[in-house]
Amino acid sequence: MTFAYSPKLLEMLKGYNREKFLKDLMAGIIVGIVALPLAIAFGIASGVSPEKGLITAIIGGFLISFLGGSSVQIGGPTGAFIVIVYGIVEQYGTSGLIVATLMAGVMLIAMGVLKMGSVIKFMPYPIVVGFTSGIALTIFSTQINDLFGMSIDKLPGDFLSKWGVYAQHLSNINPWSFVVGLATISIIVFWPRISKKIPGSLVAIVLITAVMYALEQFTHFEGVQTIGDHFSIKASLPIPETPVINMDLIRQLFPSAFTIAMLGAIESLLSAMVADGVTGDRHNSNTELIGQGIANMIVPFFGGIPATGAIARTMTNINNGGRTPIAGMIHAVVLLLILLFLGPLTKYIPMACLAGVLIVVSYNMSEWRQFKALLRMPKSDVLVLLLTFFLTVLFDLTIAIEVGLIMAAVLFIRRIMETSSVSVLEDELKPDAYSENDETLSIPDGVMVFEVNGPFFFGVANKFEEQMDVLGVKPVVRIIRMRKVPFIDSTGVKNLRNLILQAKHDHVVTVLSGVNPTVHDVLKRANIASLLGEENVCATIYMALERAKAIMNDKNIKPSKS
After folding, report:
1. Three-state SS at 50
2. Helix axes 311-319, 247-279, angle to 10 degrees
3. Can you tell me the distance from the alpha carbon of 158 to that of 394, in angstroms, rounded to the nearest whole number?
4. What is the per-residue pLDDT for 367?
């Protein structure tokens, strides 16, 4: 298996000119401004300091654009990671997060090298909606403390216990914090009616922070907690630090790292697909995964959190004229300048204001309309949707991802089985479509023709047995017509071998018809062709019927039909 890694940037630089640069520059500046409040909010919600979110958007965002496979993808921290990152930080600390993110980066690179990008894109929709909606509800639940200013120092990790603690602290509600949070949400919701160019989240943070700062300076009002009450902001890029890694920690963090890798892969590739639909471009999913992987291997050395493609920022980039990875790289530079020169000002942002921003993010993530629509789908889809949703909310995102992947595999196998069928052709059959001979063929007595339609894997052998049990008779020659079999897997080969051996035991000769070159090569390497005899592997149904007649002549059985 060979894979040529080539970042999209190299392709887009061909013919790059001043006009394209000016568009990318404007888009990059706007996206950088849009990303600012989100990066801070995602950092704090993930259990780390606000500048860690900015560092992730700066370094991760730059590398994803520089090394990825999409021309317009904007990378950085996203809401999808909040739950899993918070859990890792709570249990293993920031050193554990560094190791988990590094491992996730290695996994993403492996996925890209193994060309798994095209597979991950086809994750069943109910699973994606299930855990996305579950993450949204979980994020919402984490913001109640700051929204109402309850000042709870330590919140439990699980969903139900968290709401139990909230119920116990209802008397601690700070009405001023709630007013700030409500005002933030209102500004974000209604601001697009005034302007769609400037993000409502940025307007809300700047306006409300300015008002609260003025109140503090002129009236000594201190009723609302700010970022500065909890964190000290360092207006600089940190010095890289090397984590302590051992096998015991790797084993413990492997499930969490796998969850980060899968979430990152799914979110980034879905974002890239949506972007392709708008721009008409085509991303390289495997190159994108490798770019994401490299970014997630470098970001943790600077204390950052996992990074992936962010669909909202990517769409902002597209809508403002960005068409090459240069725009994403400029967005990272803009954030770096903000961190270096305006970073200390972020300490005045009210915590309730960030809670309002994240509540709007969780609402936008919830996909409640799609969730509601899926409830009208077939029962199997509804079951997968609800199971993934409740596992995400009530238990753990890692469990939800693992169970979701198992369900995805089971659903895939089930649907393949539904498309694969075995039919018995009696008396007459139509010729091969590619044959020049269009006469209707008759099937002699003592010969049974089974036609396989679809992939030949383990379920097909069971269908053979079902058909033979219904018929209740054993032919002299059994022809298996395989003209519509695109591939056969190792389990299918094993079951075909068992079918042939059982037929030999019952003194039934098996003849294969219409085997395509790919399937024939697999059968040859598995010694199935030699087990049957090459003369019993026929290219067409005509040859197979002639071979059946020859076998019957050898056995001195005269067909009553010809």
Report:
1. helix
2. 30
3. 7
4. 85
Rounded to an integer, what distance in angstroms lies between the CA atom of residue 230 and that of residue 213? 17
Parse the chain into domains and list their residue ranges: 19-161+249-344+368-413, 421-554
Spatial CB neighbours of 328, under 8 Å, sequence gap ≥ 6: 28, 31, 61, 62, 64, 65, 66, 72, 73, 74, 75, 317, 322
pTM of the model: 0.76
Q: Phi/psi of residue 433, each to 5°?
A: -65, -30
- The single residue listed with the structure tokens 């491992």 is 103
Distance CA 462, CA 107 (A): 37
Alpha carbon separation from 547 to 43, 131, 270, 444, 508 (Å, rounded): 72, 56, 52, 12, 14
Pairwise CA distance, residues 57 & 308, whole Å: 9
Q: What is the mean pLDDT of the chain?
A: 87
Residue range 315-357, pLDDT digits in tens: 889 988 999 999 999 999 999 999 999 888 888 999 999 999 9
Under a CB-based contact definition with an 8 Å cutoff, are residues 361 and 313 in contact?
Answer: no
How far is CA 496 from each of CA 146, 269, 446, 521, 544, rounded to the nearest angstrom? 63, 38, 21, 15, 18
What gap in Å lies between CA 107 and CA 95, rounded to an integer? 19
What is the CA 151 to chain-centroid distance, rounded?
A: 36
Beta-bridge partner residues of 484: 453
For residue 503, the surrounding DSSP H or E stretch is helix 490-505
User: Shortest CA distance to 396 belongs to which of 129, 133, 87, 80?
Assistant: 87
Contact 28, 73 (CB under 8 A): no
User: Quick one: which of 310, 330, 320 has its CA closest to 73?
Assistant: 310
Q: Hey, which bits of 334-476 come out as E strands? A: 421-425, 428-429, 441-442, 447-453
User: b or e along 516-542 (b: 16 or more beta carbons within 10 Å of the residue's beta carbon)?
Assistant: eeebbebbeebebbeebeeebbbbbbb
42-84 tens-digit pLDDT: 999 998 989 999 999 999 999 999 999 999 999 999 988 998 9
Strands 509-513 and 477-484 come out as parallel
Nearest C-alpha neighbor of 558 from the set 429, 474, 427, 445? 445
Rounded to whole angstroms, the Cα distance separating 138 from 152 reads 17
End-to-end CA distance of the chain: 49
Q: What is the pLDDT of residues 208-258, one digit of tens each?
A: 999 998 988 888 787 899 998 888 878 888 888 888 888 999 999 999 999
pLDDT tens-digit readout, 104-116: 999 999 999 999 8
Residue labelled with tokens 């649907």: 415
Q: What is the DSSP letter of 76?
A: E
Report residue 495 as tokens: 């079951």
**Above 60 in pLDDT, residue 435?**
no
Domain 421-554 has CATH 1.10.10.10: no
As to burial, measured by CB atoms within 10 angstroms (0-12 exposed, 13-18 middle, 19+ buried), residue 376 is exposed
Contact by Cβ (8 Å): 286, 143: no
CA-to-CA distance for 430 and 438, rounded, in angstroms?
A: 8
Element (H, E) at 478: strand 477-484
- Residue 424, SS3 per DSSP: strand
CA 365 to chain centre: 15
